[in-house]
Design brief:
The protein has 28 helices and ten strands. The chain is an alpha/beta fold. The strands form two sheets. The protein has a six-stranded parallel sheet, with helices on both faces. The chain has a four-stranded antiparallel sheet with strand order 7-10-8-9, covered by helices on one side. α2 runs antiparallel to α17. It is globular. About 3% of the residues have low confidence.
Length: 653
């Protein structure tokens, strides 16, 4: 098992790094790793029962962490989705698929069983991708999660029914069904009592000990113990883990628990996706490639269309219906277990199982790409008349506006600006690409419209040429840059105020045409520092003058920060952030005896903030040579600081 684990992790490291360079989702990379090293391809990994159990824990940890986000009150609010939409989806998708399988020659029992299995979607992939995309609590995300929870319960029932249908069980199927439901109810109430009386006291005692190791151990023990108890009852370990997480969702410690188990969850979940890929016979793609492609297309189109229709009939808008359908269009990992059990019970003819598994695998592999492309696909699914109608409607609404303010992005910041403008009786019009937010805001505010502010026709429709000011409060730097460039092309003289999280893209935004850029973190730091100085007794006029000087200097005084031991500098947001780093020159350092002008650190996109010698700050404009023991404080992005340090110490970079 050790050699197998080493091969899987090493191969995954290479493939995931390649997929990230290609901007492809990691889930797809793990599936490809399994397909590549599996027994029908390179055959690098032996079939190991221990490895499959380890991989299954990945789904357990994933469902537990998802349960932490869905507390019991939230789940009770979703009961109509779980049992209403969930049951409709399983029936509406399962019956047509069963009829199709029966038409292809399967027995009635096998067709019903596999039809119901194919109606279920991939809990692991959908929940993982929704979390990665930040769409768990979106309209389509909540509908998908609700349906998946019902599907997990159906999956347990189907697995327990297979022996009865195959004639191997000593009990009738209806007795098995009643016993399984009884176990599920018993598990729920047992976990409910534990979460109300035992676990809060246990977590309080561990937290009081202030030992991070004990907290991590308690979180791991809790997840594994729940999965073990659920397995003893003959139920799904993942379902039990979700229930445990859900009941702990009210706890004060849920965020810390989720943070502690995240590293274990992500690695083990990767192993799970690899194990799924290893189950596929790659030779089938050579001999039956067209048939597999056709089956995959048939499965995804039929499931996606039926789910979208059900969601639409239940009163949701078309956009949410289509996105829910695309999210649940794939087959699920449960189908692999069901096919294996059906083959053992001689319910499935020879050759059918491999084709069903191959089509299911392809649908799962396409899902991450489909979810990322879903917004554009849904936009194209709408009729051209419906897409175009919004522009004339917005233009008509803004026709009477002159000297108004255009707000791009109506989130927390945009709404705050709108309230101030309304109080001063200054007219404004806002654009936002979140349909739920626009629907909520438009009910009480007349000038909030749905649309992508990067589109020139929408900027023209909101009357940009007649506006006095444009405020860009979009929480996406790529969209912000594109919006500023487009607005500057349409109105070269317009004042553009841009809000950003930090100062990492300050120069780019100014070059794109932003009149003023307000980094949210730096402005809040400046306000906090100003309040501190006033509380220390400094005159308000003096403090206000200092703050204005910092703003006029484009926040240069506040740029950069010393990262802490817990900062993850390899994450892409932090790699773009400006950091501070002090380099102390040793006796052998290259910079000793050379001035800052000679070192030309500016060519490396790194800025020298200060130079300290014997606890005194030196004048940066001085041409005097640096000495051993000098501390040079560098400001720049991670790679630039590394290059600057290399030049100071070794003359490289």
């Amino acid at each position: 098992m050790f050699a197998n684990l080493l091969i899987i992790l090493a191969t995954s490291l290479v493939v995931i790094a390649l997929f990230r360079r290609l901007s492809l989702p990691p889930v797809l990379g793990y599936l490809c790793v399994g397909l590549l090293i599996g027994p029908t391809a390179l055959n690098w990994v032996d079939d190991s029962a221990g490895l499959s159990h380890l991989a299954e824990l990945g789904v357990v940890f994933l469902l537990f962490s998802l349960g932490l986000e869905f507390s019991l009150p939230r789940m009770l609010a979703l009961r109509s989705l779980v049992f209403g939409l969930g049951s409709l989806q399983v029936l509406a998708c399962g019956l047509p698929l069963s009829a199709l399988l029966y038409w292809f020659g399967l027995s009635l029992e096998a067709a019903l069983l596999l039809g119901a299995g194919l109606a279920l979607s991939s809990t692991a992939i959908v929940t993982k991708e929704l979390s990665s995309l930040g769409e768990v609590f979106s309209s389509h995300g909540q509908k998908a999660i609700g349906v998946l929870l019902f599907q997990d319960l159906v999956a347990v029932l189907l697995l327990t029914l297979v022996p009865a249908l195959a004639g191997d069980a000593g009990e009738h199927w209806y007795l098995v069904l009643a016993l399984t439901l009884g176990k599920a109810v018993l598990l729920f109430f047992g976990l409910l009592l534990a979460s109300r009386w035992l676990l809060p006291r246990l977590f309080h005692e561990v937290a009081a000990a202030r030992s991070p190791e004990m907290f991590v151990l308690l979180a791991l023990v809790l997840v594994l113990l729940t999965a073990w108890l659920t397995q003893l009852l003959g139920l799904s370990m993942a379902l039990g883990a979700f229930l445990a997480g859900m009941l702990l969702g009210e706890s004060h410690y849920r965020h810390q628990i989720e943070a502690d188990i995240r590293p274990f969850r992500d690695i083990l979940l990767g192993l799970f996706f690899v194990s799924v890929g290893m189950l596929i016979d790659i030779q089938l793609f050579v001999s039956h490639g067209l048939l597999i492609a056709g089956l995959t297309l048939l499965l995804m189109v039929s499931k996606g269309g039926i789910v979208a229709l059900l969601v639409k009939l239940r009163g949701s808008d078309t956009r949410s219906a289509w996105r829910t359908g695309l999210t649940l269009a794939q087959g699920g990992e449960f189908c692999f277990a069901l096919v294996a059990v059906a083959q053992q019970g001689s319910l499935l003819p020879e050759g059918y199982g491999g084709l069903i598994l191959a089509a299911t695998f392809c649908s799962m592999a396409l899902t991450p790409l489909l979810l990322r492309a879903a917004p554009k696909l849904v936009e194209r699914m709408q009729t051209p008349e419906k897409r175009a109608s919004s522009v004339p409607a917005i233009a008509a609404a803004s026709e009477a506006l002159h000297g108004h303010v255009v707000i791009c992005g109506y989130g927390r910041v945009g709404q705050s600006i709108g309230r101030f403008l309304r109080r001063e009786q200054i007219q404004f019009i806002a654009l936002d690409d979140d349909p739920v937010r626009v629907q909520e805001a438009a009910a009480g505010e007349a000038y909030v419209h749905y649309g992508d502010s990067r589109r020139s026709e929408l900027l023209i429709a909101v009357g940009l040429s007649r506006a006095r000011l444009m405020v860009v409060a979009v929480d996406n730097i790529a969209a912000t840059l594109a919006t500023v460039k487009q607005a500057r092309l349409l109105h070269p003289e317009l004042a553009i105020l841009v809000r950003t999280r930090d100062d990492s893209h300050l120069a780019e935004l100014q070059a794109a045409g932003a009149t003023e850029v307000v980094p949210e973190v730096l402005e809040s730091s400046l306000m906090l520092a100003s309040h501190a100085l006033i509380m220390l007794g400094l005159p308000q006029d003096h403090v206000r003058a200092r703050a204005e000087a910092v703003r006029r200097g484009r926040y240069r005084l506040l740029r950069g920060y010393y990262h802490g031991g817990q900062a993850n500098l390899l994450d892409s947001p932090d790699r773009q952030r400006l950091l501070l780093h002090a380099v102390t020159l040793s006796d052998e350092a290259y910079a000793c005896g050379r001035s800052l002008a000679e070192l030309a650190l500016g060519t490396l996109d790194v800025e020298v903030q200060t130079v300290r010698r014997n606890d005194e700050e030196l004048f940066l404009g001085s041409d005097s040579p640096l000495q051993a023991g000098d501390a040079i404080v560098l400001c720049g992005q991670l790679e630039a600081i590394e290059s600057g340090e290399a030049r100071l110490l070794g003359g490289k970079g």
